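Entry for the shared binder. Reason: the reviewer on the internal report wants the predicted structure included alongside the sequence.
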Amino acid sequence: MKEPELLSLADFLYVLWKRKNQALLVFGVVVALGIAYLAVAKKTYRLSGSIYVGRFQTDLLEEGEFVAQKLQDYSFIKKALEMNQVELEVSAMKLQRNIDAHVLNEVRKTKDVGIVLLTVEYHDPEKCHAIFKALTDQLVREHDKLKDDALNVLRSMERFFKVNENELQASIDADEAFAAENLRTPQEGQAWPAHVLARYTISEKREFLKQIIQDRHYLKLEGEAATKSFGTRLSAEPQVPDKHVKPRKAVVLATAVVAAAVLGAVWALFLELVDTQIKPRFRAAKARVEARNAA
């Protein structure tokens, strides 16, 4: 059996030249389809921004990794859209796939510095901006509440210590007044049990009062330091995107041209194969059948 000959480069170029009209037709159709796709495809806009996670004193309000996960969480996205009254044509679950957030730790590789990059993609620039604002505003609200709650705890503890301080000071004053009125001063070299007990009790209360005053002073300093803490904020105010990121015109056209060239060449080779290989075989087979019938 004769082995089929391989198509050389010269043969390939000859076939392309011979079938250039058919190849150019396919090329033009594919390129036209690429241009038509650019005309009708929905444009996707992207908005990115860095979020600085707030701190209470020296501690992050929430870890950066947790903030990144929260921004991509379905329940958080849905709540943020509802709170900001953002109405979309797609569900929060579909929108979830177009939201990305991850931690940026270029400053300190081994420590969470609380910088999160949030990226939102949507086919409408105004809605893209609204979604971004809804997510960041909701995050800021929640973090402000965390900071306020922590500050309120410090203030309530300070008030609690102040009340205890006042009550303990009043108790000491009462004990001293009672001792002055009811206990005689012991004679030299003598010590009455009641007098010793009263003085011991007053001394213990004074030590306890001293500790309460120190603790309250510490809490006051903590509260003053907390007021200097900063809340969660954006690196810059987000702006409505004015250029789309998808589809990319250059990429689509380049892909269409390459695909058109390949398909045009394949179509030319296919037509040549049909004319030179397949059709002659069909004609020969038909002739043999007619010859047998005639005999």
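Summary line for the report: The beta strands are 44-52, 55-56, 59-60, 99-103, 115-122, 233-234, 244-246.
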